[in-house]
Amino acid sequence: xxxxxxxxxxxIRYPQSLLSVDDRLQNLSPVLAKAxxxxxxxxLQGWQGPIPDRHFVCSTxxxxxxxRQLVNxxxxxxxIAQYTDAVPDMLINAYECASWGYSLRQALSxxxxxxxxxxxxxxxxxxxxAFWRANPNWGNSGFGIVTLLFRAETNAHECVTVNVAKTSxxxxxxxxxxRNALADKPDYKLALPFFPPAVTQLFQRLLPxxxxxxxxxxxxxxxxxxxxxxxxxxxxxxxxxxQRFLATSVALNGYWTMADITLAADGIFNWREAK
Amino acid sequence: xxxxxxxxNGQLNRSPYAxxxxxxxxxxxxxxxxxxxxxxxxxxxPAVQSPVFCGxxxxxxxxxxxxxxxxxxxxxxxxxxxxxxxxxxxRLPARLLQDDIFLLHQVDQEAKRLxxxxxxxxxxxxxIIRHPLESGRNHLRLRWFPQHSSQRQDGWNExxxxxxxxxxxxxxx
Lengths: 275, 173
Prior knowledge:
The structure holds two protein chains of two kinds.
Chain A: E1 4-13, H1 28-43, E2 54-58, H2 63-67, H3 73-80, E3 90-92, H4 99-108, E4 116-123, H5 130-133, E5 134-135, E6 139-140, E7 144-152, E8 160-164, H6 170-182, E9 189-191, H7 197-206, E10 211-212, H8 217-220, H9 227-235, E11 244-250, E12 255-273
Helix pairs in contact in A: 1-3, 6-7
Chain B: E1 6-12, H1 34-40, H2 56-73, E2 79-83, E3 101-104, H3 108-116, E4 121-126, E5 139-145, H4 154-165, E6 168-170
Helix pairs in contact in B: 2-4
């Protein structure tokens, strides 16, 4: 059995930075812990199952805070524990927007004590830098946190693919890999990352037969690794029973990931705006 | 019981590839507004500024060589966990993306989990800077957790000799 089923997906969008540039950096860790901890607790409201023994925090844009010791990971985890029992156990950001896929590969290809795995993808503009707000490579950014709870069957590692481009034309290589993955799966709906028209036109040219979910870049901006999950959240109310999805992300450095996903019949999928 | 009977604490003390030419490819987060400078200006400067001995591509080449040497010399070795300084700016070498390596912010928990699952594990932690604005002391720390004691020390000694050839020398601190 190799199903990878999405049980919960909750996205919270942050149009504003958590801290202003006038705030003291000492406040960063408690403020971030509150945002992440409350989001995890919100996503798991009413959850009766066991707390997963693997919970990855994935990020593309937040390394500076950790590498410059503005936020200490063990301290942050202790602070998150004030809000939720489902504390994350590790931080993964080397693979940029594809970090969730590499995390799932690591979790699913090694022995597990629980069928449940969590990823919380956090991309907040902690230092409020202009570079992260918009960029010619991906247009406007969208900041937020998405919490994902998966139910993974024994061979669920077969549902997750990771790879890396060999040339600088990584969007084309990624698109061809997606096309190959969908070759014998005509019924799948495809969740691609959100990009400006120059990139989405390339997707359309290289994936003419794919049943693509709408590109939500105009509404949300590029939300880094969260994009395909926002697509699934948007699609969930309209999805027919047993519908299969290919959730995909590609990073600027050419890492990509694809996951064969079903939505749990009793799943909860929502997004909201931070106040 | 998880025993680390092989431990190397070292520091890069000059260029690892002194006579090799590399393209200049420094990737620093661009600062474009006064607010950007005000924001980063809040970060305290390190008490000691470490020298930069290698650039972005050199560092990835260095890490790839160390991983290749580890899997060549250490018996038994099944998995490697390694810290990663990001944003990378450059594409990671394909070897570092394979499924016997996991790159993460802190290695201890994953090293322990893999060891308890029956794997022989190498944990690599590094703070080799590629630009003066990065923070780090050019340290490299290796810990090997084999499932069974190796009959011979040769492999570990070979690896340490290789690190010395790359100008990574053992330190006491």
